[in-house]
Design brief:
The chain contains three helices and seven strands. With 136 residues, it is of the alpha+beta class. It has one domain: START domain (Alpha-D-Glucose-1,6-Bisphosphate, Chain A, domain 4). A seven-stranded antiparallel β-sheet has the order 1-7-6-5-4-3-2. A hairpin with a 3-residue loop joins strand 5 and strand 6. The radius of gyration is 14 Å and the shape is globular. The chain starts with a strand and ends with a helix.
Length: 136
């Protein structure tokens, strides 16, 4: 499993941070690997540039507890991407905890070490964008 975890302090109140983060189309604004993001019914269609190629992903909301938690999941034949976003009140705004995991299946599990390196680099760039987006 490749995993990236970060915590971002935000000047936004928890309700605003939650509204922003639970609308996953905003990933286009803060995650430089996302090249397209649209809402599709209750879910989201994203295209992410990963490992040198565009990967279309359909994210479904698997858990929604306003204003503190949203869990999104995309399933592909070789892997599942699960993003768990937790928002908590903090002095001056809120704290956003982001836990992204890529769980590979079958032979794709052999890619775990390499994908962890790629995922860490991608996650660092997304975390920087997230800090900027959550602190307008």
């Amino acid at each position: 499993m490749a995993r990236y975890v970060t915590t971002v302090e935000s000047t936004l109140p928890p309700e605003e941070a939650f509204a922003y983060m639970s609308d996953f189309t905003h990933a286009l604004e803060w995650d430089p690997s996302v090249t397209n993001a649209t809402r599709n019914g209750e879910g989201f269609e994203l295209v992410a540039r990963f490992g040198g190629r565009d990967v279309p992903l359909r994210y479904d909301v698997v858990s929604l507890e306003p204003p503190r938690l949203v869990v999104l999941e995309a399933r592909k034949p070789a892997f599942t991407s699960r993003d768990t976003i937790t928002i908590a009140p903090a002095p001056g705004g809120s704290t956003v905890h982001y836990d992204a995991a890529l769980v590979f299946r079958g032979l794709a599990r052999l890619l775990d070490p390499l994908m962890q390196l790629v995922f860490s680099r991608t996650g660092d760039r997304a975390a920087a964008g997230l800090r900027a987006a959550l602190n307008p």
